C-alpha cells in the first residue's frame, strides 16, 4: 500500500473511536468489531469480511505506539481528508501550481526516496532504499484472538488447538497475486519502481505510477482465489501452548502467525488472550492458591487437625487451640509452580460455621458453656465505651 493510500484512510473512524482514544479504548473497539464481523460469524458475507479486514488493518497501526505516533504525525502534516487532497491545492492530481501527495513521498531524481518519504519510512514500510519492489515492503498486521481454559489448565499449563479465520498468504498463488502458471510482469512504464518522476521548474517530483497503481508490477491474469491481492481469508488450525501459571487476561504472543507481510516483508504476530474459568473451590492470588474452609467453633477453640484438598491431592494442617475466626494457614509449596522455578503456597482461610438451629444436648452444652464463661467479656473495648456514654 502506498503512502497516499495509507494516510488517506481514517483508522480512527474505522474503529469508531476519537483520535485521542486510549489504548484500552482502541483495543475494546477492535475486539467488538472483530467479533461482529468475523468471517466465522458471517459466512458468505463479503461486506462483513471487508469490514473485518479494515478493522484489523486499523488496529495493526493504532495498537502499535510507534506506528500510531507516525500515523498521527502524518495526519497532522497533511490533514485527515480523503485520499488525494489532504488540504493541498490542486486536489492531489499534480495540477499546475499544486502538489501531489506522491510528490512529497516520492523520489528526488531517479534515485532513492527523499524528504518526508524517509522521515515516515517505518510507517509506510519504506527504508530509504532504491525505488524498487522491495522498498514498498510492509510488515503484516498483528492479529488478536481469545481462548477460554479451565482453572486447572491455567495452573498446570496446556496445549490447545486454535482454529483461526484471518487474512493469510493466498495458498493458490503463493502470494504473488497471479493465476498459477503465470507470473506478474514488471511494469513497463515505471520499470518496477512504482513511481513516475517528473520535473516542475527547478524541482524533481514523483508520483505513483498510474499504470501499475504504485505496485511496480502488473498482473494480467489475476489469481481466482485472491483476485490479485496475494492475500485471502482462510481457516487454519494452530497449536497454542499455554504456559503453567498463566493469568486471566494474559496475552500469549505467537511470532509470525499474524497477517502476511507485503512485498516480502515479515508477517505480523498473533496474540492469544487467555480467559480462565473460575474454580468452584479454589481461588488465586499471584502464585498462591486460596481456599476457604468451614470449621466448627470447637475446632478453633480446642485445636486439632484438618484435611483440605489441593489441586492434585490433599494436605493436613494443624489448627492451634484458640485460633481466631478468619485466620489463614499456609501449606507451603502447594500453590502454583511456574516455568521460571517460582513456587506458590496454598492459603487456607478458616471460617466458623454457625448452625441455624440448636436443640437437645447441643443446646444444653452451649448454655453450660455460656454460664462457664459469663465473667469473660469478649468485647471489653465496646463495653467500656457503652459505660462512658451511659454515665
Automatic annotation (TrEMBL):
Binding-site residues for Zn(2+) 2, renumbered to this chain: 187, 190, 209, 212
Q: Which UniProt keywords apply?
A: Chaperone, Cytoplasm, DNA replication, Metal-binding, Repeat, Stress response, Zinc, Zinc-finger
Native organism is: Prauserella shujinwangii
Q: What is its main location?
A: cytoplasm
What are the CXXCXGXG motif repeat spans here? Answer: 170-177, 187-194, 209-216, 223-230
Coiled-coil annotated residue ranges, if any? none
**Quaternary context:** Homodimer.
Tell me where in or outside the cell this protein is found.
Cytoplasm
Zinc finger (CR-type) residue numbers: 157-235
Q: Which GO terms describe its cellular component?
A: cytoplasm
Ranges for domain J come to 10-75
Using the record's annotation, list all stretches that form the CR-type domain: 157-235
Asked if Cytoplasm is a keyword of the record, the answer is yes
Please give the family membership noted in the entry: Belongs to the DnaJ family.
An example GO BP is: protein refolding
Entries under Pfam families matching the protein:
DnaJ, DnaJ_C, DnaJ_CXXCXGXG
Protein name, per record: Chaperone protein DnaJ
Q: One MF term from GO for this chain?
A: heat shock protein binding
UniProt: Zn(2+) 1 binding residues: 170, 173, 223, 226
This chain's function reads: Participates actively in the response to hyperosmotic and heat shock by preventing the aggregation of stress-denatured proteins and by disaggregating proteins, also in an autonomous, DnaK-independent fashion. Unfolded proteins bind initially to DnaJ; upon interaction with the DnaJ-bound protein, DnaK hydrolyzes its bound ATP, resulting in the formation of a stable complex. GrpE releases ADP from DnaK; ATP binding to DnaK triggers the release of the substrate protein, thus completing the reaction cycle.
In the record's own words, the domains note is: The J domain is necessary and sufficient to stimulate DnaK ATPase activity. Zinc center 1 plays an important role in the autonomous, DnaK-independent chaperone activity of DnaJ. Zinc center 2 is essential for interaction with DnaK and for DnaJ activity.
Q: Which gene encodes it?
A: dnaJ
Q: Which cofactor does it need?
A: Zn(2+)
Q: Which NCBIfam families match?
A: DnaJ_bact, PRK10767.1, PRK14279.1
